[in-house]
Amino acid sequence: MSLEMDALDRLAASAYDGFLVRKDLVRKYSRQYPVPTYVVEFLLGRYCASTDEQEIKEGLAIVEKQLQDRTVRTGEEELFKARAKEQGSIKLIDIVKAKLDTKNDCYIAELPSLALRDVRIGDELVRDNERMLTDGFYAEVSLSYDGIVAQENAGRPFRIDSLRPIQMSKSDVLDVLGGGREKFTTEEWKDLLIRSIGIEPASLSERARRLAILRMVPFVERNYNFVELGPRGTGKSHLFQQISPYAHLISGGKATVAKMFVNNASGQRGLVCQYDVVCFDEVSGISFDQKDGVNIMKGYMASSQFSRGKENIRAEGGIVMVGNFDVDVEQQQRVGHLLSPLPPEMRNDTAFMDRLHAYGAGWDFPKVSPAEHLTDHFGMVSDFLSECWSRLRSQNRSSVLQGRVFLGGALSGRDIEAVSKTTSGLVKLLFPQPDMPVPDVDLEWIIRLALESRRRVKEQQKRCFKSEFRNTHFSYTMGLEGLEQFVATPELHSDEAIESDPLPPGQVWASSIGTPESGPGLYRIEVTSGNGSGVKILNQASSPLFKESVRVGEQNLYQRAKELVGDRDPRQHEFSIQSRAMDADKSGGGLGLPVLVALCGSLLGKNTRGGTIIVGGLSLGGSVDMIPNATRIAELAVDKQAQTLLMPVSARRQLNDLPDDIWTRISIEFYKDASDAVFKALVE
User: Coil, helix or strand for 556?
Assistant: First the structure.
């Protein structure tokens, strides 16, 4: 029974005396008795919340006796009913559900484990515990039996005299949580949170630990919509089923509009009003009893409200969807997109996808094996932790970004809202006190995780509807002086290499000349055009040399519009331009010609040739600059796996010295002037 306490156990014991429980004990009893983990922890927390071996031993005896005497195993129903008759009353732990009996104008309760559906219960008890009217909750119940009532016609002899919901009702839990948190570093605190949900953090990679924390966000953030898909057996639904009485799991995905939102006949509010988190397990099977069920859910996910007749009802329950891929991620991306496992009416609906605040990469989490991944150490008692999480929902911490993190131009309003919500949730989990400073180093990985998990949603939208969701290059800048950083989703491998598919109109790969120190560098330039006038650079902090490249490209387009873009008038369009530096060179100099190609491609709606890097600086008069380091640029193009390098013809002599193996690995094409370059770079 005894456990070798490690440094984190001792630290936790000093910070949260009376709120800790040994997680291996929890598993031992939750396997033996037919109740979820948090019910076992509730009792262990009451009698064994100690690190003292003797106290734990004494507490365990009490817990074991209570679980033995008060939980009903299959086949023991009649035994418990007989006890109630003989003794007059019994105590048991069960789910309590209730409904209105309109014939007799009273409420009746149901106790599933005793197969009783007509237990008398006082109106007051139902009013104080409304959740029993939706899907019920676990409680310690005093059940009495009245022999006189039993003899009446249609008499109901069983009655619930009192009940105590299995959850903590202390008012100062957040002060306790915040006070203890101050003793931990962020890394230690992450590990304690992960141990508190029963997992051993040492068995996880850094990405898996971050995913474990991301899974907790729906508990602390109101109306947070989260999806996680991945292989089977990675513990996706465990958190939503076992850890918190404030979460409700719909297994098999079958739901009714009345149960989920509102019962129009009785006016009874549904699960999203009663719980903090409603989780659909096996997301591929989500179905409603009414045709418009998915639309009601879609509307609710966007606005946090739904209507019943003329009345609009607001609710705060977040929607979580978890499900399995039957293939690996790369295969899934080949056969469809990463939201393909959703049911047909949601699968390709980009408006539905837009309502998802984050997509957790379930494939980054290992298959959970009890010996390796489950912890035997101390963690916070679930009902204490879930009570804290529920109370944190009333705070908003997205202001932590103000003046510190600037989001790039590719994010739409919905993207910004999603990233803010994820950030707010992660900050609440890791820094539960509002006045706790969030160091830059932590804020940076939090914002990267928030951007990545939203961009994953965006990438799937793009696969369904390319033209509308073209720009998914999410970026951020730390502070006013910081460099713009781009956040990729790691499963998209083509992000840094040159893909051979034609690029969308307005996008080009380009090489700068660079500086003697940095050498040439690869850039991705992206231009979108719409009604208006002028050119807008979306990069938060763009270099003077890049601004100059843009100005030169823009002026050449205006001066030579007829030969470059025919009858289209560039002065009637507003262009938005963004550059991403892929290498050490961030100067952005000498990119005038690639900028011109991108502007023309965007205006003409023509794709850029795939696998091609474009090189060349321009003057305002339209002449092409000399390239001082053509050989180094050719070597860079080979490194980036490009197929074609498009260069000014003046660079040809320099390339005489190019090694034979480079000539055989890339096709080098030359252009004589700017319009020749535009013609050769765009796909006819």
Answer: helix
Contacts of 281 (CB under 8 A, 6+ apart): 237, 240, 241, 249, 250, 251, 252, 253, 322, 323
Query: Of 108, 23, 35, nearest to 68 (Cα)?
Result: 35
Element containing residue 82 per DSSP (H, E): helix 77-87
Q: Do the Cβ atoms of 21 and 60 come closer than 8 Å?
A: no
pLDDT in tens, 5-16: 899 999 999 999
Alpha-helix residue ranges (DSSP H) falling in 279-434: 293-303, 329-335, 344-347, 350-354, 370-373, 382-392, 413-430
Cα distances (angstroms) measured from residue 669 to each of 183, 262, 510 = 63, 66, 14
* Amino acid, single-letter form, for residue 266: S
Of 57, 81, 80, the residue nearest 68 (C-alpha): 80
Please report which helix (H) or strand (E) contains residue 139, including its range. Answer: strand 137-145
What six digits make up the tokens of 25?
Answer: 């004990």
Cβ pair 508, 608 in contact under 8 A: yes
Whole-model pTM: value is: 0.72
Alpha-carbon dihedral sign for residues 289, 292, 295, 300: negative
Contact 518, 587 (CB under 8 A): yes
CATH number of 7-18+172-387: 3.40.50
Alpha carbons 56 and 27: distance in angstroms, whole number:
15
Class of domain 494-681: alpha beta
% helix, strand, coil for the chain, step of 5: 45, 20, 35
- Kindly report, residue by residue over 207-234, the tens digit of the pLDDT: 999 999 999 999 999 999 999 999 988 9
Closest CA to 175 of 433, 436, 428, 381: 433
DSSP-assigned letters across all residues of 659-673: -HHHHHH-EEEEESS
* Alpha-carbon dihedral sign for residues 460, 470, 358, 418: negative
Bridge partners for 511 per DSSP: 522, 615
In this predicted model, what pLDDT tens digit does every residue of 555-611 receive, in sequence order?
999 999 999 999 999 999 999 999 988 887 888 999 999 999 999 999 998 889 988
CA distances from 348 to 336, 341, 352, 464, 504 (A): 10, 10, 8, 6, 21
| Burial class for 372, CB neighbours closer than 10 Å (0-12, 13-18, 19+) | exposed
Please state the domain extents for the chain. Answer: 7-18+172-387, 76-165, 396-486, 494-681
Distance separating alpha carbons of residues 287 and 283, to the nearest angstrom: 9
Helix (H, G, I), strand (E, B), or coil: what is residue 622? coil
Q: In whole angstroms, what is the distance from residue 616 CA to residue 484 CA?
A: 24
- Burial letters for 288-322: b for 16+ Cβ neighbours within 10 Å, e otherwise? beeeebbebbbbbbeebebeeeeeebebbbbbbbb
CATH class of 76-165: mainly beta
Dihedral of CA atoms 41, 45, 47, 48 in degrees, nearest 10, equals 90
